[in-house]
Amino acid sequence: MKLEIDQRRLLSEIEALAAISDAEPPAVTRIVFTPTDLKARAWIIARCEEAGLAVRQDAIGNIFARWVGTAAAAPAVGTGSHIDAIPNAGKYDGVVGVLGGLEAIRALRRSGFRPRTSIELLVFATEEPTRFGIGCLGSRLLSGTLSAEAAAILKDRDGQSVEEVRRKAGLSGSLQYVKLPAMYYKGFIELHIEQGPLLERAQTPLGIVKSIAAPASLRIAIEGAGGHAGGVLMPDRKDALCAAAELILAIETAARSNGAADTVATVGICEVFPGAVNSIPSRVDMTLDIRDTDLARRDSARQSIERASQSISAKRQVSIQWELVNADAPTECAPEVREALADSCRRHGFQFLEMVSRAYHDSLFISRIAPTGTLFIPCRNGYSHRPDEYAAPEDIARGALVLAESLRKLSS
Ligand SMILES: [Zn+2]
Prior knowledge:
The chain is an alpha+beta fold. It is 35% helix and 23% strand. It has helices spanning 7-18, 35-50, 95-110, 137-143, 148-152, 162-168, 198-202, 240-256, 295-316, 335-347, 362-366, 393-411; strands spanning 28-30, 54-57, 63-67, 76-82, 85-89, 119-124, 185-193, 206-212, 214-223, 264-266, 270-273, 283-292, 319-327, 331-332, 352-357, 372-377. Strand 2 (54-57) and strand 3 (63-67) form a beta hairpin. The longest helix has 22 residues, at 295-316. It is elongated and about 80 Å long. The mean pLDDT is 95.
């Protein structure tokens, strides 16, 4: 039988999941392991069981829903994404990959296909960094990128550790066993909205990711000297905010002069102490997010920022402390998975663009342990992480169809 996506059902499921939220519609807020998130997780598990999949959860709450193949012991073909959402987000980030993946599996079943290797839907736990300050916690543990010990002690804003929170959420077992064995997956595909404007601009319905840019993320603390805004004369000042201003511009210059469009650097948080109109800033805490598809290039930009920081510190007599939060390596997507995606597009007569993923997803970490690919669909104006995030029904269905076709290819 023909491979066909049930677009109406898929869209109604996206709406149903969006309604499980802590924000007023159309906004979606689903912070991991809150009662709302637990309700959404139970809802997903019920949909997977309804589809006849064998469901299990690991100790961090990654959900695995498996369609067992005829070669049940062979490495599986995986697909999936996440359902947690940052405050005031949209309906599609992550969800398209989870519900699109589920519908792809159902479509394959309806078509009469029997997979040789098992096909597994994976719903990654705690992809967004909202609660524990680090993104992709579930896939970092699955891939061994983060150790169980380091994960267990991460804390949320209320001081509750990952260990406490997951236990309260009913997840038992040890985090030690979350890491997947070698050759668990023979291939993995994440379907995701682009979260950028390129597909829409190119009027191309699908994007096959070649490489994924990865961020290094740092905290910077600048300590100067405070004082009365009237009393301390300019030559005597060690104004931490003036030093921060100079450093922020040096960061921009380092990213711009790196000679590559793929180098991007952002200072997204800048907190000034004590924060009073008539008080000289004594301290500034800021963050730096620096990304590239090329690790050496990203490191060289970081080094030039650090050199600038040393000279600003000496000139302004302030101390500048750097703390590395994480530095993930960028990745190239697996040729065999890219080829399966491209073949599937051609087979259905869909145009596609080969592109760089500038946001990163769980697939970045899964790529450390399995041949991995990412398939993008357009989203309006490139908007994401906001309530007006939107992907057109036909684009979602097209993505799910190409995903299904590719899963068929890889699991045959
Ligand atoms: Zn996402």
